[in-house]
Design a protein that fits this description.
The chain is an all-alpha fold and about 300 residues long. It contains 13 helices and no strands.
Amino acid sequence: MRAGTAISAAVLWLLVLLALLWGLAWPVMKLALSGMEPLRFRAFAIGLSTVGLFLIARRTGARLAVPAGAWPRLLAIAFFNMAAWSVLMIYGLHNVEASRAVILAYTFPVWTIPLSAWLMREPVTARRGLGLALGLAGMAMLIGDEFVSLARAPLGALLLVGSAISWAIGTVVVKRWPVDLPAVSLSAWQGAVSWPPIALLALVLEEGPFLPFGLPNGPMLAALYGALVSGIFCQWAWYRLLVITSAAVSSLAILVVPVVGVFASSLLLDETPGWTDFAALALVVASLATVLAPPRGRPERACS
């Protein structure tokens, strides 16, 4: 999608659904961690979701063969977007409350926009700049009262910021040096090459079950959500969006995810939103409206 081109209704609905499901994933993952060790949970989720993505690719006739010469790019994308992100994120979430974790992890648009401007020469337009400022202001309000709490767990906070940087790098690499594969196949191969090192780390560093079956219902269902919803649908939707929008737009558009994550954490983990949560919600919604509003005088174009 070219800069300045209106976003189709289908893409907008995909963005909304992705934001809701990915936002809900953060308190759900926290619940899964009450019954499983971090890397063992991620090994289970990545393993099951990878199998599911390969099955979807085969069922839909998506091309699976990695093009000649594309393996270095695929490995780099998998490292930043799946392997490094998973390890940093899950250990950070293990040490930080879910509502704070999602805010820290979703600072990745801060890093994506300058990387996109540098590596892809994407213009930082006034509207994108305003949208970014509004979104960051919303996240800053949510983070504002948490500095004292975060100071008690600086390692977890740093790991989550590291996961955000890793995801931003992977986002731009996908756009700058793409691999000629359908989104579902690209997601499947990333899981396939990321699972062995994560499973090996889990085997060496942790103890406990690799499978959630036999756990209490809450952690078991949460682990399955992480694999089936976050791991299959959300992964496919994210890479699909990267194909049909710019890296900056797709990143800004899902700034709503931390807001969903904060309120979902409040509902599921008995936290109580304050006035700063509602103010942040208004700022982030304004950010999305600024970024997604169609340009005047230009008809909406369908994306495929």
